[in-house]
Amino acid sequence: MRLRERSVVSLILPLALSVLLAALLAGCGGGGGSGQSENGGGDQEQKQGEEAANKKGEAAKKEPLQRKIAIGTVRGFKEDRRRLSLRPTVKAQSDKPLGFKIRKNANITLGGQMAELGDIKEGQQAQIEYVVENEVNRAVVVHLFEAGSQDSGEGEKSG
Prior knowledge:
Blueprint: H1 2-27, H2 34-39, H3 42-61, E1 68-78, E2 83-88, E3 98-110, E4 113-114, E5 125-133, E6 136-145
Parallel strand pairs: 3-6
Antiparallel strand pairs: 1-2, 1-5, 2-3, 3-4, 5-6
C-alpha cells in the first residue's frame, strides 16, 4: 500500500507544478492570446526590454566612482607624464604628499579662469577633485589659486 501512495504523489506533484507554471505564464502574457495581436510586435519589444534591463544590470554592477577633494600645495608636477604631487594642508587627508594622474579631459582652472597643464607650477595652492580608479588617484578637476590671492602669513612683514 505504501508503494502505491508514493507513486500517486510522484504523479500529482509534477502535474500540479506544470498547471501552476502554465497559469503564471498565461497571467504574464506569455500565453500568446489576444493581447499579443494588439501589440503587433510584442515579442520583439519584450526582448528589447529584457536586453535593456540586462545592460542596466551590468552597469549597476559597477559602482559609481566616488569623488573626493584634496586641498594643498603643489609639491611637484611632470607635464609630460600628467603627474602631480600635492602636499595636503589638512592633516586628516594625509601626512604624506598625495600623487595624482591628471585625466586628459580634466577641467583645469587658475584663479577662476580656464587654464592648461602648463599653468601648473610648484608652490601653487590647489584644490583637486579626484576619483580612485584601480588604486590610482585620478584628478578630474584641478582648481589652482594665484600666488598673491592667498597669503600664508610667511612673506614680507612690515614694520
